Amino acid sequence: MESRVTAELLRGMPLPQPDERGDKEQRGRVLAVGGSVEVPGGALLAGLGALRAGAGKLQVATCRSVAPHLGLALPECRAVGLPETEAGGIAPEAAGTVIEGGARCGALLIGPGMMDQPAVEKLTARVLEGLEPGGEGPAIVLDAAALIGLGETPERTRRHAGRIVVTPHAGEMAGLLGIGKDEVNDDPRGTALRAAERLGAVVALKGSTTWIASPEGKAWSYSGGCVGLATSGSGDTLAGIVAGLLARGATPLEAAAWGVYLHGEAGNRLTAKVAPLGFLARELLAEVPCIMAEFAG
What we know:
globular, UDP-N-acetylmuramoyl-L-alanine:D-glutamate ligase, alpha/beta, 13 helices, 14% strand
């Protein structure tokens, strides 16, 4: 079964709305784990994405040497410093802290800006194994380096009963399934469905047409974006938006569909305001609240 992600489709799956008298706890907490000494901005963009999507509280966990600077750059968050590897990444020994923090949140995001790939793979594996599965633990978004090795150990994601969203581009999808990138590009819908079934997770395969697939075999396509979205940090913003929507109470499939649409429409609006090329990933995020508000009107 296949559908297109359109405004009409999304009107039929409205996002959870907080009570007018509710506080920030009602809008949900996000823990974003990301960044590195070389790319601290990945965690910053993802955290901003979660807040712009409407999450009420944000924690960002990153390398200990980076955390104070991140806290100043993003004063809306609680910045948590984690042990570092010699390569300037987050050490796998941080898994306990991530599990403890994630258990208190509605959504956990791992991956943006993380550069020490062996360390990321170990950290992600330990966290997936340590968190309570199903509705007991947070909904999870896995992005970028956090996708490494998932296809070889699908039991780690499957135990979370469909409460995971993964957001690969074509190259990451090829690594995840152990196939060539050309094979992904030749059949993006089919590879997204294969990955969703294998991982037991919702998949958002990013590209000029983004394919969203569920473990149950449903596929949605979105081709309404623009070439300007293909820029540094754009994927980090998308991952953060999805995490923020999950924290608010959207299902993984809803969060993926809404996140992809909001991200794409933000790019279209910047294309009209700025130019087809040259707008920045961080600029996408200020467009998101207005787009969501139009659906609530």
